[in-house]
Amino acid sequence: MNWYLQVLKEHYADFSGRARRKEYWMFVLFNFIFGVVVGFISGLLGIKWLASIYSLAVLVPSIAVSVRRLHDTGRSGWWLLIGLVPLIGSIWLIVLLCLDSQPETNKWGANPKA
Asked: What is the pTM of this model?
């Protein structure tokens, strides 16, 4: 939960630097859980715009943590656009996001594991 809150509080629109795999995937996990809960509550109460508001609220931090995760693997944030290629692009993006960090300092900063 701390990883999720850290992305929202400290790195809301921070597209520079690097993000560890743990930070990225914990953010994705809790974002998915909260999204399901908000979607369920909005469907239960009949407030259809509630899920849309949540999605818009986490859109920028989701993109930012993805870009920082790509920076950690030594790639530019523009690689995020590979996900727009149908099927193959999404699979390739997941592979890139699962790769280990570059152990040394790269042009986006020091290794966050160190």
From this structure: 0.88
